[in-house]
């Protein structure tokens, strides 16, 4: 905890932490506002730790998030406990629910793994408007990435959004087998399409393996020729991947080396 001489900066550290600044940049901001301060970067680390402990009050970060969401009527919150311990958390704002129910035809699902402060997989549900703008619909923290966890997550989405509506026309996901299996069980018969970004990454990886630049010395004609093939193939793929109607010439694709 900071000394009395520097207590005026406690709120500044708390506010800057909330907006996502790390201790290094928080310290730099304090120095910019008060060049004569004696606060060190270690003081910032210590104060952040004290603030976090004071906020949690013995709760896990996920339990604290549940309490915060439950205290706000704007949020719909569902959770699962095992032996009294919080395991999964599904939440969506009332506005997000209304938006998703207005445009339920296409649902995008993206899962990120341990890239958040809770160190848990986070599932993000999204939708698309008639003018092709995207919006967030719901979120779910899960303890793992197995099919049963996804089942619970997808069921919460169905119960919240689709309980009195026809099912979505299609789901767009990555190639996560557990997620796709869970969708097929909860939304039987609904198409599950692969996200164009993930297709793009698969094509790019195949192109890199087919025409390996590392096999050629720098500044050689052979390397430049292979590099041109690489770039041309990705340009041709982009025309295919982002077109609504595939042109007939694609049938006679010149990049047969990829097969």
Structure characterization notes:
Helix 1 packs across helix 2 and helix 6 packs across helix 7. 19% of the residues are buried. It is flat and about 65 Å long. It has three domains: 53 residues; 133 residues, Nucleotidyltransferase, domain 5; 62 residues, no CATH class. The C terminus is likely disordered. Helices cover 45% and strands 18% of the residues. It is α/β, with parallel strands linked by helices and 259 residues long. It has a seven-stranded mixed sheet, sandwiched between helices.
Give a quick summary of the entry.
By secondary structure, this protein is α/β, with parallel strands linked by helices. It folds into three domains: 4-56; 62-194, Nucleotidyltransferase, domain 5 (2-Layer Sandwich), CATH 3.30.420; 197-258, no CATH class.
Helix content: 40-55%
| N- and C-termini, Cα separation | 62 Å
Counting helices, strands and paired strands, the structural category is alpha/beta
Order of helices and strands: HHHHEEHEEEHEHEHH
Total count of helical runs of at least 4 residues: 9
So what's the overall shape? flat
What would you report as the Rg, rounded to the nearest angstrom?
A: 25 Å
Task: Give the CATH level 1 class of the largest domain.
Answer: Alpha Beta
- What are the segments in which pLDDT stays under 50 over at least 5 consecutive residues? 244-259
Roughly what fraction of the amino acids lie in strands?
15-25%
Mean pLDDT: 82
CATH architecture of the largest domain: 2-Layer Sandwich
CATH topology group of the largest domain: Nucleotidyltransferase, domain 5
Major sheet attributes: 7 strands, mixed
Number of domains: 3
Strand order of the largest sheet: 1-2-5-4-3-6-7
